[in-house]
Amino acid sequence: MDKLEIFGAKKLRGKVSISGSKNAALPILAATILSDRKIILKNLPNVKDIETMIKLLESIGSFVKYSKKKNLVIIKNKKKLKTFASYNLVKTMRAGILVLGPMLARFGNAKVSTPGGCSIGVRPIDIHLKALSKLGASYKIINGYVYANSKKKLKAAKIKFPKISVGATENLIIASSMAEGTTILSNCAIEPEIKDLVNFINCIGGKIKWIGKRTLSVIGVKKFKENEYSIMPDRIEAGTYLIAAAVTEGNLKISGINPKIIRTEIEILKKIGIKIKSEKDSIKISGTKNIKNINLKTSPYPGFPTDLQAQLMVLLCKSKKHSTIKEEIFENRFMHVSELNRMGAKIKTFGNKAFIEGNTNFKAAELMATDLRASVSLIIAGLAAKGKTTINRIYHLDRGYEEIEKKLRKVGAKIRRVS
After folding, report:
1. Whether residue 317 lies in the annotated active site
2. Does the structural domain 3-19+233-418 have CATH classification 3.65.10.10?
3. Cβ burial, residue 79 (10 Å; 0-12/13-18/19+)
4. Beta 251-255 vs 282-286: how paired, if at all?
5. Is the pLDDT of residue 119 over 50?
């Protein structure tokens, strides 16, 4: 099993180009099931979750031509596809459940394994299923599989999500885009990746528009057209490199990202003392030794993202005073804390709150990664620590960060992969 070796402490200097968004590409790939016309997707990130979703599409009968070097995929679906998503493919990623909506919408039935991914919380799919039932689908769960069908074509409905859910919003947008009539979805998640999904479906002939801050009108269509679409940049990757530069007191230019989609993250970094200059499609950051403390909580967009919580915690360890982070999205997302403490951090957790003492001088150690974002937080701590840090179980990392070692080496990090 591969591991990473990091030789710190090195200041990151130079330029990092941001890849396409994994969290935008996955629902868009699932949505291609709706169409039997050729679809070309550009700016796909070269990460494991994308490979897995492509294998899933191939397993149901899609013709897929995937170029990792060009970061694009050409998809052509048959008029009839299989409607079975196996556990072997869905077990490693949460986004596997997103094929449920398009299978139901186009073919009227689906058998989909309940999803896997990082072990950061329960993440139930009941919101997805109850919402799909309002469109006329019936379902049952047997031996870890969702069996769903609609005897007739899905029918439009007014659906208000009981709480904000990114996955449920995505699944219902996709499903309702072929339902008969006009569906109104309210209390939707409004992450940029969801807006990218809406833009994609409209690009291939969908009729979706925002009629309120968290409300969508979706007019169902019978057929979709051939087109090509470029995936948005990865805002979580951009935020990760911003924090890595801040932790190492480095200077980076993050290119290929619209600063507006990470406005909250930039404001928080400025608040704790980091110098940041935003340009049209890039961000310049300069680190400092004088990190200020902060108390914050994760929340749905436009709040501070849970996917950057672990990385920011590393930075707050360098603060001069105590900080707190309240995790409001997932109940099991502090698994990186014990590993950071092994590196000299002083962090205590009580329920969904982490108390960070600050004034940490990270020490190199051998570590174990537990999930995608925890993995990268340990890399950031390793970059700041003197000596050799070894991170085991990095397969989580490969699910969501494209060529992370290569990108870090280009800006001065001493990091290598060892098999």
Report:
1. no
2. yes
3. exposed
4. antiparallel
5. no
